Amino acid sequence: MPKYSATMVSHSFWFAEFQAYIELLNAGYSEDDIRAKAEEDNYFKQKTAARTQDLLKVLKKRLVTLDQDYFVLFPSLDIGNQKLVNR
């Protein structure tokens, strides 16, 4: 079982951003495309570039733990189950 640290609490759960990231992946965007969109267009509406970098790092850690099947399944889940996948 993976260990969790107290720093996880310092991050918001970024559910809307997690949803948007998966939507972009399902639309055919690569991780590099999403990073560029986030940095250049402030796609995730963060206040600073550092916050955007932090968000991308945290979301990448979450997404790397999921199988590709979850990306396809995620939009069809109800909100409660989507929130479980996000954590």
Indicate the topology:
Blueprint: H1 7-10, H2 15-26, H3 31-41, H4 49-64, H5 68-73, H6 79-86
What do these coordinates show?
With 87 residues, this protein is mainly alpha-helical. Helix content is 66%, strand content 0%. The chain is built from six helices and no strands. The protein has helices at residues 7-10, 15-26, 31-41, 49-64, 68-73, 79-86.
Residues in β-strands, percent: under 5%
Helix/strand order: HHHHHH
Query: In DSSP terms, counting alpha (H) and pi (I) runs of 4 or more, how many helices?
Result: 6
What is the tally of beta strands? 0
Key structural traits:
about 90 residues, mainly alpha, 6 helices, about 0% strand, globular
Quick rundown:
With 87 residues, this protein is an all-alpha fold. The chain has helices at residues 7-10, 15-26, 31-41, 49-64, 68-73, 79-86.
